[in-house]
Write a structure and sequence with these properties.
Blueprint: E1 6-8, H1 44-57, E2 66-67, E3 79-83, H2 89-97, E4 102-107, H3 110-123, E5 128-132, H4 135-141, E6 148-154, H5 172-181, E7 182-192, H6 195-206, E8 212-214, H7 232-239, E9 245-251
This protein binds S-adenosylmethionine.
Length: about 250
């Protein structure tokens, strides 16, 4: 029997069987987005992936609905949400190395989603589901409180110019939204190759001691844990000589 994936949604008639479109979740007001949607061209393989693999791996979710993450997987296990997985190769590698865990990948960029769908098929992975939506909308109200074991955010767009800092995904509201969906004792793992953004993340997360405890101690970065594979953007940063920082926090 199919489990109910959506716990509630405002209007059943708007619940399309298509991948969730990235839409303004703040009605009437243009939200500040952490991404610029470059649609890019899909390869023939990615086109096929959306047609044939989305029904197997994709999550149809619309802003306003509340998703039941446990219902996405066959058995109730610990769930990791990766925000902005890019091409998804590192997420697929993590999932392959941890078959005892389940993963939800979240990304707005269609070619990246198609790329991950193909990787899941090629590697025969069954512990990953894919969602195409704005993280801000999903975290705000789209998941039940304390429903996830881990949230990971690897190499988010650094928005280096001062006038663009408001577009950085890590903001006090985002930190609170991640805290809401994590179970007590759960983990928030971030990484960046942009040192000023690493300092920004540290200030935001260390600045919320009622929500998160820095596992390396206040003011300190963590070493990259072996279970985090090198990502595509990390490799680019390494080529440019950037230092990589990991931050690992425990939800109180
Ligand atoms: C710099 S890339 C890093 C990709 C990947 N994590 C890596 O390390 O290779 C940041 C990614 O985050 C995605 N992204 C940015 N804001 C997002 C949001 N609000 N919701 C979902 N994805 C987002 C972008 O589309 C982009 O693919």
């Amino acid at each position: 029997m199919t489990k109910t994936l959506i716990l509630s949604h405002p209007d059943a008639s708007t619940h399309a069987a298509e991948p969730a479109r990235v839409s303004s979740h703040e009605q009437g007001r243009r939200p500040i987005r952490s991404f610029v949607l470059r649609e890019g061209r899909l390869t023939a393989g990615q086109e096929r992936a959306f047609r044939e693999l989305w029904p197997r791996f994709g999550i149809d979710w619309q802003p306003g609905e509340v998703l039941d993450p446990q219902a996405l997987f066959a058995t109730a296990r610990r769930i990791t949400l990766e925000i902005g997985f890019g091409d998804g190769d590192s997420l697929a590698a993590m999932a392959a190395a941890a078959p005892e865990r389940d993963f939800i990948g979240l990304e707005v960029h269609r070619p990246g989603v198609g790329h991950l769908l193909l990787a899941l098929e090629q590697q025969g992975l069954t512990n990953v589901r894919v969602l195409r939506a704005d993280a801000a909308a999903l975290l705000e109200t789209g998941l039940p409180s304390a429903s996830l074991d881990r949230v990971q955010l690897f190499f988010p767009d650094p928005w280096p110019k001062k006038r663009h800092h408001k577009r950085r995904i890590v903001q006090p509201g985002f930190v609170a939204a991640v805290a809401r969906v994590l179970r007590p004792g759960g983990t928030f793992h971030l990484a960046t190759d942009w040192t000023p953004y690493a300092d920004w993340m540290l200030a935001m997360l260390d600045g919320a001691p009622e929500l998160f405890e820095n596992s390396a101690g206040p003011g300190r970065f963590s070493a990259r844990p072996a279970q985090r594979p090198i990502t595509k953007f990390e490799r680019r940063g390494q080529r440019l000589g950037h230092q990589v920082h990991d931050l690992i926090y425990r939800r109180r």
